[in-house]
Amino acid sequence: MGCEILPKIPVLDFSKKDLEPGTISWLKTCNEVRQALEEYGCFIMKYNNFPSKLRFEVFDCLKDLFDLPTETKMKNRYEKPLSGYVGQILELPLHESMGIDDATSLQATENFANVMWPQGNDHFSKTVHAYAQLAAELDQMVTRMVFESYGLEKYCDSYTKSITYLLRILKNRAPKGDEPNLGFVTHTDKSFTTILHQNQINGLEIDTTDGQKINIDFSSPSSFVVIAGDAFMAWSNDRIHSPSHRVIMKGEVDRYSLALFSFSNGMVQVPDELVDEEHPLQYKPFEHLGLLRFFRTDEGYKAKCPIKAYCGV
Prior knowledge:
Jelly Rolls; 7-stranded mixed beta sheet; single chain; globular; 13 strands
């Protein structure tokens, strides 16, 4: 019997010097990004321009943060859904995470740091803000490529202006003894896009459209994973796939990761150009933050596809 060969998530190189709008390299990458998000809902981004000093410093900051007392970390709260502290869950003992809303604003990272360290922590604020800025630049490059690949670049600037970023800072500790190894439950992201980076400890597992599970190896220090969220799937009228994924922990080393989620402040609707006979309209215009609030209800949480339940035609 031959062994089953699992599909591989595309690896796209964003380090190339000639990756500028209008170049052959840019146009080729635009199509590769769109095809990856349509087929898998994600891809691995190689980005060798990520400064190693920033990378080391941001993970040191994460360790310092998660070493704080639980009662301190639990002060991370926002009015928006899905933004604050998550942890101390009996069924998910390995998971702990916090959120910094509007993380591309230095003021927002300072406000977060001042809650965690009442005396302030300037190094944390500046380091995490610098990381969020870098990840946001990569995110905006990816979304511009998708818009251009669909011939919809005229919508790109208004989309970018509507976006705010939530940075979720995550720790999955290594399981002890006979603890279950589930780091986080199977879910889809409710964002437009997610830019994910980790400390060389793998654990992310993506579901393919045909029901297979792929363990994602992005242990290179210069690798990110780009994941399409439910809002991007809806905007694209189901051309883009929002993949289910979870975290499974193996080994004896804790996994630290950073996930930058993009959310629109306003209404999202399918562009007329993405509706045709082959792709009839699947979604009504929707408020992105309304989707997050809906997901927190019993109906939204239990729905097989929350965004279809929220605004499907």
